[in-house]
């Protein structure tokens, strides 16, 4: 089967053996798959050593075959992949055995994938195939950061540096549906405009003086994923007693922190990463109730997937990149 593979020959379109379902497993014929930033970083971290690995965490498709003992699914069911492996119940932290799909296990950038029946959810009927392939990882990550860990409430003001990522496009929509005020940043005037159309209340230039721009705002919650480039600036904007949730670092992830400033302001710094199946199901129900849809920048055939990786590396996209298979 065709797949986007990383191995000794680097990142490439290649061939992999078709998977077969063992007991408790199903084979899904993938129709669409969503590109995430972790797919960009895995080749960098692996280098050019190791076995061939199929990348990809997000996907949607049709069940092609089922293994012995499978009771939840039938051949022909339309499903989306839960990329949060072995984390089923909501908890403060992820359990032992948790890991995102796509390393070390083969992922979704292939014509077929084999998974435990526990790692699938019914495809939301109100979404297109392309939208279905992009809601799980980014939507779950944003929902846990904003709702579970951030404890956002109606009337809160949420500040989110960076406006173009798939996760942030969900955070904007989730916060708006809850009744929170949302402020985002971007160096790109075009991305700021997109964010405002999506539901952000304000969109400011990343290069601006945030303290000056936000002097009349009370920031209750910051959602950070940029890293060193913005982290301390975000803390400066956060109110006394406010919460900063960090779910990633697209720039350098080692920072210098003024602890005296932190405890004087009695601020909270909270880590967050993906989420449980409980939260995925909560998020999917919430999204359907409020008609929240993934924002898709580009749809690309799997044969041209490397083009999508290059776009993501350059951060030219607003929203998600989808591969059709």
Automatic annotation (TrEMBL):
Superkingdom, taxonomy of origin: Bacteria
PANTHER family: DEHYDROGENASE, PUTATIVE (AFU_ORTHOLOGUE AFUA_2G13270)-RELATED, PTHR45033
Organism of derivation: Sporosarcina jeotgali
Domain called Enoyl reductase (ER): residue spans: 7-323
SMART domains, sorted: PKS_ER
Pfam families cross-referenced by the UniProt entry: ADH_N (PF08240), ADH_zinc_N (PF00107)
Name of the protein: Zinc-binding dehydrogenase
């Amino acid at each position: 089967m065709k797949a986007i593979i990383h191995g000794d020959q680097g990142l490439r379109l290649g061939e992999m053996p078709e998977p077969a379902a063992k007991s408790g497993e199903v084979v899904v014929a993938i129709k669409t798959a969503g590109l995430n930033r972790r797919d960009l970083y895995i080749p960098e971290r692996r280098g050019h050593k190791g076995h061939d690995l199929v990348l990809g965490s997000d996907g949607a498709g049709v069940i092609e075959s089922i293994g012995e003992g499978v009771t939840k699914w039938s051949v022909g069911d339309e499903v989306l992949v839960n990329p949060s492996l072995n984390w089923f119940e909501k908890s403060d932290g992820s359990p032992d055995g948790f890991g995102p799909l796509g390393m070390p296990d083969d992922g979704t950038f292939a014509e077929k994938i084999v998974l435990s029946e526990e790692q699938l959810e019914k495809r939301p009927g109100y979404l297109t195939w392309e939208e279905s392939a992009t809601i799980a990882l980014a939507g779950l990550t944003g929902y846990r950061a904003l709702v579970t860990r951030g404890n956002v409430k109606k009337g809160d003001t949420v500040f989110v540096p960076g406006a173009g990522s798939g996760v942030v496009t969900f955070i904007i929509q989730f916060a708006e549906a809850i009744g929170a005020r949302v402020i985002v940043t971007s160096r790109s005037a075009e991305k700021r405009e997109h964010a405002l159309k999506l539901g952000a209340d304000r969109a400011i230039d990343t290069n601006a003086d945030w303290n000056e721009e936000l002097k009349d705002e009370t920031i209750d919650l910051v959602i950070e994923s940029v890293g060193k480039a913005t982290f301390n600036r975000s803390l400066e904007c956060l109110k006394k007693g406010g919460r900063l949730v960090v779910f990633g670092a697209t720039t350098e992830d080692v920072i210098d922190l003024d602890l005296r400033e932190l405890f004087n302001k009695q601020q909270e710094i909270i880590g967050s990463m993906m989420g449980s199946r409980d939260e995925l199901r909560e998020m999917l129900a919430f999204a359907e109730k409020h008609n929240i849809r993934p924002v898709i920048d580009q749809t690309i055939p799997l044969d041209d997937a490397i083009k999508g990786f290059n776009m993501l590396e350059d951060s030219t996209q607003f929203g998600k990149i989808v591969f059709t298979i």
